[in-house]
Amino acid sequence: MSTVLNEVRRGTYLDSVALMRISGAIRSMDGVDECGLMMGTPANLRILADAGVLAAEGETAGPGDLVIAIRARDAARAAAAIAEAARILSRPKRTSGSGPAAVMPRTLRSAVAALPGANLALVSVPGAFAATEAMKALAAGLNVLLFSDNVSLDDEIALKAEARARGILMMGPDCGTAIIGGVPLAFANAVTRGDTGIIGASGTGIQEVSCLVSNGGGGISHAIGTGGRDLSREVGAITTLTALDLLDADPATRQIVLISKPPAPEVARTVLARVSRSPKRVVVCFIGAKDLDLPPNAVAGATLEDAANLALGRPVATPASLSRPTASGKLHGLFSGGTLAAEAQLILSRAGLAVASNAPVAGSAPIAEAHGRHTILDLGDDAYTIGRPHPMIEPAVRDAHIRAALESPDCAVVLLDCVLGYGSHPDPAGHIARLVEARPPGGPRIVASVTGTDADPQSRTLQVERLRAAGIEVPPSNAAATRRAVELLTQATPPERR
Amino acid sequence: MPPEPTGGPPAEAATRLLADGPSVINVGLESFATELAGQDRPVVHVDWVPPAGGDPRLARLLAKLLT
Amino acid sequence: MSRTNAAARIDIANAEALRRMLAGDPWLIDVVAARDVLPRLGQRRILHAGPPIDWARMCGPMRGAVAGIAVFEGWARDLSEAEHMAESGAFVFEPNHHHDCVGPMTGMTTPSQKLLVVENRAFGNRAYCAINEGLGKVMRFGGNDADVLDRIRWLTTEFGPALGAALRQLGGIALKPLIARGLTMGDEMHQRNVACSSLLLRQLAPAMARTSPGGEALARALAFIAGNDQFHLNVAMAMGKAIMDPARGIENSTVVTAMCRNGTDFGIHVSATGDRWFTAPVEMPQGLYFPGFSAADANPDMGDSAIVETVGLGGFAMAAAPAVVGFVGAGNAADALAITRLMREITVADNPEWAIPALDQQGVPTAIDIRLVVETGITPTINTGIAHRKPGVGQVGAGVVKAPLGCFTSALEAVAETMGVA
């Protein structure tokens, strides 16, 4: 008979990543079945209830209270788990700054006083509070990288208008990646510095292109994230246009790569008109866009890999001519990076395959119509990450999907991405490898791409070796991995004859 | 309505960011600050808590009075 | 959303409140009889510490003080009669803050008492506070026996007039520089007033010698000040009130103009809402107890003395007084610095004239903004004495108490309402 035990810490706040790490540590204790440390918002309490770890004590928590929820084999082990959580929580907080009484500032305002040269606020608080914090940063004259999502469109427009009026760069909301002056911010890679500037609406899009360029012998001056809605009609490309101004004037930038899903048509016209006045070469990668009317100084890259090829002036991988597979086995793509999932769909569609996705691009069917189609899941999509870490932070959230694909009778190829860099899990390849090494022989083939560099904390070379040792093919790019998957589909033995 | 493309000289604050490199106030996930500190970048982490104890109604009111 | 009109209007109003606070020029000028300066203070009207409260809700020490002061004033023959009178509604209770007054702990102010007068010469307003009775069994902690009443009589008939004469002879004592000096000597002016009391004595002694009839009366007066480390507390309180009052009633200002407690409720005033009280149940102080006493003996927090924190001293100036930080618990000197730093998170500015050496001459955190309190959940830290929960026993310890968040949130909603922000 298991025991559910809760403790509520009133007025205690920890960020979600920190709480997930503590939950993970507690969950690994002997006799602990399940553990959740969460702030007591109504949504989080529902998640804890659904997980069967919420007790009456936990139900009393408010949004400003921390709930420690344990389900363990017996009362003693539950109590031990609570005690361990309390021990971890009681570790003193790191201080920053110097001089007498260095204490961690409690507000952005006092942090600015502690770091007088500050020029950027990196904001990743929960979405409901994010716009307010970003506005405070703008009011303090700071450039902003707003990592948080779930910020309303109205707030985004107000923030960007305020930033434009103040001559400030407003990256995001929902900006996962930036590289400024060689410094990776949020989820970004340690790339070589060079003459290619990137402006990107998508985090993993910037990561893939910057890594391919860097690994291919080129380099990145700056990569500026705009947030996924910047090229919408409502926002009107405010950040993209600011970024073009910046990179035009930046002496280190010789050419610019612009990455986005297809913009609203009138916004595309505005942006391309601005591009036409740039003195620099611009690679336009509006993934999935057709019939772009580009100015003479611009070239179109259909995929992230195309964009990287154009920036480098040479291919990052050997292109393959794809023949349409005839076998009946299906490809199951399980992605942590949304733009990598989009690029894969595009390549599959172009190879003539019928694709369904939870995040369909032009040419793909919605996931409800997956029957008979190859599937690409973006597991970083909000629907999969409510109350759970993003798969780039915690690869384990993809485990169940990978296991299901490997056991699925119709699955011929599993296609994965593995995104390295700052912010990401310290060993995503090791996690995948351990998961698939135990698979029985004769199952689906596994192809993965690794987005990263050897200078990343995880080292791309080591991560690739780890995957290959587990029998996973690792082509040089996500596009190349997708093409290889298509090839394998062509060669695959139909599962029914396996 | 999309704004008219500017194409003028970029603004001072943003230009200085690119020229000087980021000097960061981190509000939110502490791991971002830890990673920047590990690269010897100037960073100060804010020991942020949800405003108004996480009460959404009060937080909205506060936002109107504070920002 | 964009930077709202409301936020900008509040910022401007708060800058004005801060300006008035920093411009304040408080002088200790006189000692007067309460009845002479508080015309509304008629028969059987008792001013008390904290927000409004009636007899039924008063804590033990407050009731003890009420009974004692009623006997002192001659309104009752003895304590028992005084209590019956109180119960039957014979007394009118009003907060000191409604009468330009402040009082420590129970804060009894009645017509016959002698009050310190602090004049804010920049604005012309005056504030009053009774003379500190010293330590031990005293009325501010609910003491009411014959010794307690005798001491108050002595303060009224002998010491008060002598002090007043000396102050008039001096032309008053400027308090701003006195506080600045005291901060460099380890006082935070709430729990520790050793330096400021001594500095006062240095200035007062020659003048008292000059104006006093001399002999034993002078010796008693000088010995009383010299023997009371907290003599200056009541001066600091009247000063705090004199500094804060000009900052009251500024439209749109979210600066706190008073914090006080009556042993039952904690109350604040906010500039924009004038004399409207925002209250929440007062908390128990955390601290150290005199030998033989424990937390079980403690009364919930009392007194108008948090006016000292309202002007940036007391808990806000903890960094200046590492000697008292032991009262806050694990306390070491670094904790004292951290508390002042933390209080700076909820104030509009520093006061450059009241600098703290241990913080590289950073000024004390000044002008509490209720927006910042509600935003951060950081409530003011108040240094305080701890009274026995039973009337008549007196002080049993000292420590710190946190202002309850509830009064700040309700005040914020009220200011929002006055501004038409919902």
Question: Keyphrases for this structure?
Answer:
A: 498 residues, alpha/beta, Gyrase A, domain 2, Rossmann fold, 3 domains, six-stranded parallel sheet, five-stranded parallel sheet, 17 helices, 19 strands, disordered C terminus, C: 422 residues, alpha+beta, Enterococcus faecalis V583 fold, v583 fold, five-stranded mixed sheet, four-stranded antiparallel sheet, 21% strand
Provide the fold topology.
The complex is a heterotrimer of chains A (498), B (67) and C (422).
Chain A: E1 3-9, H1 16-27, E2 32-39, H2 42-50, H3 56-59, E3 66-72, H4 75-89, H5 108-114, E4 120-123, H6 127-139, E5 143-146, H7 153-166, E6 170-171, E7 177-180, E8 183-186, E9 193-200, H8 203-215, E10 220-225, H9 238-249, E11 255-260, H10 265-276, E12 281-286, E13 298-300, H11 304-312, E14 330-335, H12 338-350, E15 355-357, E16 365-366, E17 374-378, H13 382-385, H14 399-407, E18 411-419, H15 428-437, E19 445-451, H16 460-469, H17 478-491
Parallel strand pairs in A: 4-5, 5-6, 9-10, 9-11, 11-12, 12-13, 14-17, 14-18, 15-16, 15-17, 18-19
Antiparallel strand pairs in A: 1-3, 2-3, 7-8
Chain B: H1 12-20, E1 24-27, H2 30-38, E2 43-46, H3 56-66
Parallel strand pairs in B: 1-2
Chain C: H1 5-23, E1 26-33, H2 34-37, E2 45-48, H3 60-72, H4 79-87, E3 92-95, E4 101-102, E5 114-120, E6 125-130, H5 146-170, E7 173-174, H6 175-184, H7 194-211, H8 216-226, H9 231-244, E8 256-262, E9 265-270, E10 278-281, E11 286-289, E12 302-303, H10 307-310, H11 333-344, E13 347-356, E14 362-368, H12 370-376, E15 381-387, E16 395-402, H13 405-418
Parallel strand pairs in C: 2-3, 4-6
Antiparallel strand pairs in C: 1-5, 1-7, 5-6, 8-9, 8-12, 9-10, 11-16, 13-14, 15-16
Helix pairs in contact in C: 3-4, 3-5, 5-7, 5-8, 6-7, 7-8, 12-13
Explain what this protein looks like in three dimensions:
The complex is a heterotrimer of chains A (498), B (67) and C (422). Chain A folds into three domains: 3-89, 2-Layer Sandwich (Gyrase A, domain 2), CATH 3.30.1360; 175-312, 3-Layer(aba) Sandwich (Rossmann fold), CATH 3.40.50; 330-497, Rossmann fold, CATH 3.40.50.261. In chain A, 36% of the residues lie in helices and 20% in strands. Chain A has helices at 16-27, 42-50, 56-59, 75-89, 108-114, 127-139, 153-166, 203-215, 238-249, 265-276, 304-312, 338-350, 382-385, 399-407, 428-437, 460-469, 478-491; strands spanning 3-9, 32-39, 66-72, 120-123, 143-146, 170-171, 177-180, 183-186, 193-200, 220-225, 255-260, 281-286, 298-300, 330-335, 355-357, 365-366, 374-378, 411-419, 445-451. In chain A, helix 6 runs parallel beside helix 7 (153-166) and helix 8 packs parallel to helix 11. Chain B has one domain (13-66). With 67 residues, chain B is α+β, with helices and mostly antiparallel strands. The two termini of chain B are 25 Å apart. In chain B, 43% of the residues lie in helices and 12% in strands. Chain B has helices spanning 12-20, 30-38, 56-66; strands at residues 24-27, 43-46. Chain C is an alpha+beta fold. Chain C has two domains: 25-238, Enterococcus faecalis V583 domain (Enterococcus faecalis V583 fold, Alpha-Beta Complex), CATH 3.90.1710.10; 248-418, Alpha-Beta Complex (v583 fold), CATH 3.90.1700.10. In chain C, the strands form five sheets. Chain C has a five-stranded mixed beta sheet. In chain C, strands 10-9-8-12 form a four-stranded antiparallel beta sheet. In chain C, strand 13 and strand 14 (362-368) form a beta hairpin. In chain C, helix 7 (194-211) runs antiparallel to helix 8 (216-226) and helix 12 (370-376) crosses helix 13 (405-418). Chains in contact: A-B, A-C, B-C. The B-C interface holds B 49, 51-53, 58, 61-67 and C 1, 3-4, 6-7, 10, 254, 371, 374-377, 405, 409, 412-413, 415-416, 419, 421-422.
